[in-house]
Write a structure and sequence with these properties.
heterodimer; A: 372 residues; alpha+beta; Rossmann fold; OB fold (Dihydrolipoamide Acetyltransferase, E2P); 2 domains; 6-stranded mixed beta sheet; 5-stranded antiparallel beta sheet; 9 helices; disordered C terminus; B: 232 residues; mainly alpha; MetI-like fold; globular
């Protein structure tokens, strides 16, 4: 699929308007709209969904023109066939879970329906909830039903606006695997809005980075999230996403060992099959560098790489970019350290990462590699 | 208590209930429409429409009745037209009493419904649109069911108001036994004649009983609807 957006929208008071002026093209399976709160992410998805009308510009999904200000095209929301999972669920309180799920089905032409109730109920594990009322569901259950409701309308594109933001950590853990299943099993592109870098790293292939209503960067996860920290969202930091495979589990020591072309390493125990691909985010500040054998130290994860670039980051740090057998990695180290080690482009180094640095929430199953 | 009722009193009770029902049902679609208009549509003159709807609440009922007589009387502009076109006569008929009651109860009905519409989360309607529902479908499947408690409350209020309506009714349609004499006007008639106290008391007791029954029934119904609509 290809989603092409070039829109302008002014909101708020005339004397101090918020101006969204965004343009991007995405061809990924999951496109993340990423940025700080107030960057214009929700406005942008509302424009795509047709709940807000751009002042000018155009929105295209494959060959369908959804909006074109100049040509006077504005397909109403109910005819766009774009599913929307809202942050707060927005389940209909007067309908049962089943009633909510099948709500959109009757409005979809028979030949356009690709989702069936049984399949979606199974995908999201909501079989036991069907006869309940939304008021009787937990936050995580509500979000799963909301996802199912959007899917059963058989959309051409699914928008997810911070679907995990209102959930606590436990509930996030509960939902993320379902979104991964969705990504891996459904032939439908997803636009995923988030200000949480761990979710974006774990789920997305393409990232659209928004700041103050403008698109700052568009590209593959590692290209965008490896940028300088100032560009990223609140509390987010530069880092990259590595893809490795599960080698073995060691429940006794609470770790899972992974295989990466640049070396083996271990992370806190995860629930994935041996041989399964894994995506994991590595923050630049969690990576240390050694030249030659680091000797007897506690850090277990040692990956061999080559320095590809050395750039300034927020003082006193310097960002050292590495090539790990094809994957990028960024290490934030001090300027002094770079000088002491005499680092320069082309040097062979060992990247050291503490196992405990991996946040389980940012570690997820990956699809077959090479499609991002 | 009932054995003591005279045929004329029975007639007044029957008429009262019938007039109140017809008034409530006939004003229902208009009530929903005006409530939606005031709650959801921003248009010039909205305050004026709001004011006109509320006028019967604050004007002396006699004034409303007199205006109705001027407009809907057999020589009034609307009344004459209704009679010549459809053969409908409202003045001094029970249907006229229903019209008077409907207008007097209208502000209460609209108020209750409007509050319930304003309490609806419009984001639910946006969600329905993203699921493919066009505006009419959104109204029928989301807005209307969610405002049902308000519709019920509005209906009960209008019904209760109609049962008690006196001033506008007696001015517009008079106090004709068997045609326009309702419980309140019958009580009024009793109080105007010597020895009418017993009859007035009987009707008063009945009036209280009907009002209480209506309130209890509506409360039970409202709770059931709230459970169904809000899943609580």
């Amino acid at each position: 699929m290809s989603l092409s957006v070039a829109v302008e929208k002014r909101l708020g008071p005339a004397e101090m308007p918020f101006v969204l002026d965004a343009e991007f093209l995405s061809q990924g399976r999951i496109t993340a709209l990423f940025g700080r709160s107030g960057a214009g992410k929700s406005t942008l998805v509302n424009l795509i969904a047709g709940l807000l009308r751009p002042d000018r510009g155009s929105i295209r999904l494959d060959d369908a023109v959804l909006f074109d200000g100049a040509a006077g095209v504005d397909v109403p929301a109910h005819r766009r066939r774009i599913g929307y999972v809202f942050q707060e669920g927005r389940l209909f309180p007067h309908l049962s879970v089943r009633g909510n799920l099948v709500y959109g089905q009757r409005f979809t032409a028979r030949q356009d329906r690709w989702a069936t109730l049984d399949e979606i109920v199974d995908l999201l594990g909501i079989d036991a909830l069907l006869d309940r009322r939304p008021a009787a569901l937990s936050g995580g259950e509500k979000q799963r039903v909301a996802i199912g409701r959007a899917l059963l309308a058989s959309p051409r594109l699914l928008l997810m606006d911070e679907p995990l933001a209102s959930l606590d950590r436990e509930r996030k853990h509960e939902i993320i695997p379902y979104i991964e299943r969705l990504r891996d099993r459904m032939q439908m592109p997803i636009v995923y809005v988030s200000h949480a870098i761990d979710e974006v790293s774990r789920l997305a292939d393409t990232v659209v980075l928004l700041d103050a209503g403008k698109v700052v960067a568009v590209g593959r996860v590692n290209d965008v999230l490896g940028g300088s920290a100032e560009m990223l969202a609140d509390g987010a930091e530069a880092g990259v996403v590595l893809t490795a495979t599960v080698l073995a589990h060691d429940p006794e020591n609470g770790v899972t060992r992974l295989n990466h072309p640049a070396g083996e390493f271990s992370i806190p125990l995860v629930d994935l099959a041996v041989g399964a691909p894994v995506r994991l985010r590595v923050r630049a500040r969690d990576v240390a560098l050694a030249v030659g054998d680091p000797g007897r130290i506690s850090i277990r994860n040692r990956l061999a790489g080559t320095v590809t670039a050395i750039t300034d980051a927020a003082p006193p740090s310097v960002a050292v970019r590495l090539d790990l057998a094809g994957d990028p990695l960024i290490a934030n180290v001090t300027r002094d350290a770079v000088r002491d080690l005499g680092l320069k482009v082309g040097d062979h180094v060992t990247a050291l990462i503490k196992s405990a640095a991996f946040d389980p929430l940012s570690v997820g199953g990956a699809r077959t590699q090479g499609t991002s | 208590m009932f054995e003591g009722l005279t045929p004329a009193e029975w007639e007044a009770i029957r008429l009262s209930i019938r007039i109140a029902f017809v008034a409530m049902l006939a004003s229902l679609p208009f009530g929903v429409a005006v409530a939606l208009l005031l709650a959801r549509v921003r248009f010039p003159g909205r305050t004026l429409v709001d004011g006109i709807v509320h006028l019967p609440l604050v004007m002396p009922p006699v004034v409303t009745g007199y205006l109705l007589l001027l407009l809907f009387g057999r020589r009034g502009p609307i009344g004459a037209w209704l009679e010549s076109t459809f053969g409908i006569v409202l003045a001094f008929r029970w249907t006229g009493a229903a019209l008077a009651c409907a207008i007097m109860g209208f502000p209460l009905m609209v108020r209750a419904m409007r509050l319930s519409i304003e309490a609806i989360d419009e984001r639910l309607e946006a969600a329905a649109a993203t699921l493919g529902a066009h505006r009419l479908a959104v109204f029928a499947t989301i807005t209307l069911p969610l405002m049902l408690p308000g519709i019920l409350a509005g209906m009960v209020l209008a019904f209760a108001r109609a049962l008690g309506e006196f001033g506008a009714t007696i001015t517009f349609v008079g106090n004709i036994p068997g045609e326009t004499q309702t419980i309140p006007t019958a009580i009024y008639t009793y109080t105007q004649v010597p020895g009418g106290d017993v009859g007035a008391l009987r009707l008063t007791a009945i009036s209280i009983a009907i009002a209480l029954a209506a309130l209890v029934a509506s409360d039970v119904l409202a709770r059931r609807v709230a459970r169904k609509v809000l899943g609580q």
